[in-house]
Specification:
Helices cover about 25% and strands about 45% of the residues. It is built from three helices and twelve strands; from the N terminus they run αββββββααββββββ. A twelve-stranded antiparallel beta sheet has the order 6-5-4-3-2-1-12-11-10-9-8-7. The longest helix has about 40 residues.
Length: about 200
């Protein structure tokens, strides 16, 4: 009987210690996840984009601004010494995507049904509602979209399986590269020079 009681007591102590060792890790992961998702709420990214899709290819400067469910993207040429940048393509996305291109006299409007689903990326903090699943599986499924997270709770990949489209994110200390794929073929790559986190 004493042996059984000792075993029970040992199990209780072990469970308690294991719980103490696990809970801080979960709390730390929750903190990392929340901080990362909040960082995507208001952000500006500046860098170089290289795109090569069908007969469309270029290498140009890019600025991406995201704030309050709105994404604004400008691809532009710069003049001598970077003076007087000239817009090449501008895109604005909230409920629809509006494109302005030099060869189009009027803006082109593209509706969500014709686009990969990135709705979860417009309000990333809402993903924190699924924190338990993200911490456990490092991924979450939202209808036809799968979002994968790294060990540091950073968004590593967003994939729309219906559209055969995915975005991959590479980090060092901060985000360094974003790569876009269509049907497993790379169609664009953004090398990031600078990231600013604030209301823009």
């Amino acid at each position: 009987m004493k042996f059984k009681k000792a075993n029970i007591f040992t199990c209780i102590i072990f469970s308690f210690l294991a719980g103490c060792a696990t809970l801080p890790k979960v709390d730390q992961q929750e903190k990392l996840l929340l901080e990362h998702l909040q960082s995507w709420e208001t952000i500006r990214i500046d860098g170089i984009i290289e795109a090569n899709y069908k007969s469309f290819a270029f290498r140009k400067n890019i600025a991406i601004r995201k704030n309050e469910g709105i994404i604004k993207l400008d691809i532009y040429d710069t003049g001598l010494f970077g003076i007087r940048p000239t817009p090449f393509i501008s895109a604005f996305f909230d409920s629809v995507l509006v494109l302005e291109m030099p060869d189009q006299p009027e803006p082109v409007v593209i509706y969500p049904k014709d686009l990969p689903d990135i709705s979860s990326f417009l309000h990333p903090v809402k993903l924190f509602e699924h924190k338990e699943q993200i911490i456990k599986d490092h991924k979450i499924h939202l209808e036809n979209v799968e979002i994968t997270f790294s060990e540091k709770m950073q968004i590593a990949k967003i994939e729309d399986k219906n559209a055969s489209f995915r975005i991959e994110f590479e980090y060092q200390n901060e985000l360094e590269e974003i790569t876009f794929f269509k049907e497993d073929k790379e169609i664009a790559n953004i090398q990031i020079d600078k990231i600013t986190y604030k209301n823009l």
